[in-house]
Amino acid sequence: MRAWFDTEGVPPADRLAALDELFVGSDHPMGVRSPDAAGFRASIRAVDLAAVNVVDMAISSSEVLRTTRMVRQADPGLLCVVMGTTGRLVLHQGGREAVLGASDLALYDSSRPFGLRIGADGGQAALIRAHIPTALLGKSAGKLGELTARPLSGRGGFAGLLGHFLTGLRDDSGVHGPNDLARLAVIAEDLLRALVAHHLDADAGLLEEPRQGGLLPRVEAFVQRNLHDPELSPRVIADALHLSVGYLHRLFSDRETTVAAWVRQLRLERARRDLRDADLRDVPVHQIAERWGFKDHSTFTRSFRAAYGMPPRDYRHGLPTAAS
């Protein structure tokens, strides 16, 4: 795991605000508040295992909230699992509340508002959070509302296996090498899918479905997470998912488009949405282009005009096309 955020080195008065800014700017925005802003501390590490992201967090008593407005702002469609390691957690979503002690797990869905009280007994707490795109859950994704904010004991069953795996990632002191990441990614994905399927009493078909033709959802999830990266390319995508570039292109043969064209269209759609967002009206057009991975403003303008019939600045102000 790599260090992602640490309040050490941040002035005490700025620590809570710094973490809140980081959370609000994430791919599924959340806010954080604490009753002890002056004494607030947090240390966060993370690791990406292909489509699965795992975070290890030690944090002062606080509450993380994802509101309806934040869901509308951005939703990558994630199923998340949280596991307490010390202290007490309280997760609420969809009218339910799960109180979690050490080793207990619970699920939440990024597509709906939720709240997570960390250190609910007033002290510091530690937890591990993992998320996976719901697209990889197959038919199970439509039933997630039955599972969210329900306590799952991590002392046995699939929850215990997943908890043991996540704890091992947190405590790994170098046993695994870089070439093991792909293997760990497969294990993480399988455990998360198995946990969901088991608790939904799903049959084996639900587990096997994503395996058959399941590479495209993985490609889509990786691209969605990395659209902001100007270096994102078919080669980068293929390398990250341990595919050949040729095989990646073959996956798109039925879509009547190329990988590069699809990525460009996704970026244009995100930029188009931001240009019409009233909260972003003061953000310069070139910064919005950069936010979605366009290296060159003139290239962005030409691509935007070709896609939507007008330059981005005119689109932002709702001006008609020249043909109108």
Automatic annotation (TrEMBL):
InterPro entries: AraC-bd_2, AraC_XylS_family_regulators, Homeodomain-like_sf, HTH_AraC, HTH_AraC-typ_CS, Tscrpt_reg_AraC-type_HTH. Keywords: DNA-binding, Transcription, Transcription regulation. It comes from the Bacteria. This is Helix-turn-helix domain-containing protein. Residues 217-318 form the HTH araC/xylS-type domain. It comes from Streptomyces andamanensis.
